[in-house]
User: Fold this.
Amino acid sequence: MKEPVRIAITGAAGQISYSLIFRIAAGDLLGPKQPVILHLLEIPQAMDALEGVVMEVNDCAFPLVRDIVATDDPNVAFKDIDYGLLVGSRPRGPGMERKDLLEANAEIFSVQGKALNDNAKRDVKVLVVGNPANTNALIAAENAPDIPSGQITAMVRLDHNRAKSQLAQKLGKHANDVKTVIVWGNHSSTQFPDLSHCKVDDKPALDQVDQDWYENDFIPTVQQRGAAIIKARGASSAASAASAAIDHMRDWALGTEGYVVSMAVPSDGSYGIEPGIMYGYPVTCDGGKYKIVEGLEIDDFSRSRMKATEDELREEREAVKHLFGK
Ligand code: NAI
Assistant:
């Protein structure tokens, strides 16, 4: 058996974690031969609920779980971790403006960025799920100067998976038949789910659907899918978000074998996007590293959509800039 790896999950008593923790414990993230030590972080008020989750994990007698650390201290939660899934965040409360939400979360993610910087392994892989995910990840990264740039990322994989599934359903195919869907930009309603490089059964997707469906049905459906789930379920996406978080981390750790997936990563200026912002890009992963797919041709329609979501991310960054590196 291999040495165990340490995986931190924040917001560990929340809905997404109630799926995520058990799937990781079952081996869905790193496979059936990789033991894990779970580091579970919550706020003090949720520690009783977290204790219940720990009891349930113990009751599963998972072969791969070697230990569980349950804490309300980010410095303990992030000690020597190999992976961090930052799920916990502050939800929008009554009367809270978007700016208040950004600021409340920016406080949380600046504290957690510092705790990562002080405690995590230098090659830690971090995924921010808690919203506003892209900007929360940016804040964490700005507060973790000793963690190499690019090791803190944000999740657009749920949007990517939703796009694959919507297109497959439209064409009566399986999601496996869909290749090179891209979600550019922010995990928000400005995101751009792009089919212009996508192939289904090795043929261009846009030759198989009409432009009207693409622009006026597909794109808004993917953009608004989170709201549609809340309307139907009375609660936000949880199991699908956990599944996407596992996909993101597994692909990053174990590789995509050339397959293109979407990850929000610090822009290096590729495709003319402002350097530094956490922007959803097409990537491939190999040897524990991701690489932005370069050289795709971008038409005017795509360019304007990519710009709109970039503008939103720049605005978000402006709203929280005062918390960088404090
Ligand atoms: P939830 O409200 O059920 O759970 C969140 C948990 O985080 C709570 O138990 C809370 O006590 C905890 N928490 C709050 N502040 C914390 C802190 N500073 N440290 C540690 N824990 C903290 O929410 P749920 O449904 O699990 O969603 C979590 C987040 O994920 C939300 O922000 C949600 O909007 C976001 N999300 C992101 C998606 C994406 O694609 N990026 C998809 C779906 C949800």
Observations:
- The chain is about 40% helix and 20% strand.
